[in-house]
Amino acid sequence: MEPKINLDSLSMSFGPLKSCGTQRLIFDIDKKGRLEVVNFQNQNWQESLLIDSLFKIQSYKNIEYAPPKNEFEKKALEYARLINKWQALEHRKTKEKVNSQAYSLIYCDTKGYLKLGRYQ
Predict the structure, then answer these.
(1) What is the DSSP secondary structure assignment for residue 92, as one 8-state letter?
(2) Which listed residue, 4, 17, 55, 76, has the most CB atoms within 10 A of its CB?
(3) Is the pLDDT of residue 120 over 50?
(4) Once rounded to an integer, what is the mean pLDDT over residues 11-21?
(5) Nearest C-alpha neighbor of 77 from the set 67, 63, 87
(6) Taking residues 46-64, what's their average pLDDT?
(7) What is the rounded CA–CA span in Å between residue 119 and residue 25?
(8) Is residue 4 a contact partner of residue 87, using CB atoms and an 8 Å limit?
(9) Where are the beta strands (DSSP E) in the chain?
(10) Residue 27 class from Cβ within 10 Å (0-12 exposed, 13-18 middle, 19+ buried)?
(11) At CA 113, angle to CA 111 and CA 116, rounded to 5?
(12) Is pLDDT at 67 greater than 70 in this prediction?
């Protein structure tokens, strides 16, 4: 699954690399390819396993999101929310559009700009 936006057009400077980090993001995408919510994946959060009864697709839904802990996390979420249009995922057999999740790393490049890592 890929965003329908040129990520290079979303240039957002974070600043000094010493205060930059790396985090894993979860993007919840609706059936029309619109971003519903994005937040950090954290093993300490409460999650619930959701299984689509018709298609047997598994996904995890965070029950409770932790607020950003520092300036990097605040800026990272602000940047990630700009990526609001995604390629809608469809069931292989029925071709019906389904809700989905995308995962990515967010980090700073060598010049201090926020970047997304590889999509899964």
Answers:
(1) T
(2) 76
(3) no
(4) 68
(5) 67
(6) 61
(7) 10
(8) yes
(9) 23-29, 35-40, 47-51, 58-62, 89-90, 97-98, 100-108, 114-116
(10) buried
(11) 125
(12) yes
The reported pLDDT for the residue numbered 59 is 62
For residue 69, what is the DSSP state?
Answer: -
Nearest alpha-carbon partner for 116 in 8, 4, 1: 8
Which residues are paired to 116 by β-bridges? 106
d(C-alpha 34, C-alpha 88), whole Å: 8
List all residues 6 or more positions away from 25 whose beta carbon is below 8 Å from its beta carbon: 38, 39, 40, 41, 76, 80, 103, 104, 105, 106, 116
Statement: the pTM of the whole predicted model exceeds 0.85:
no
* Nearest-angstrom CA–CA distance, 21 and 106: 8
Specify the DSSP class assigned to residue 87: P
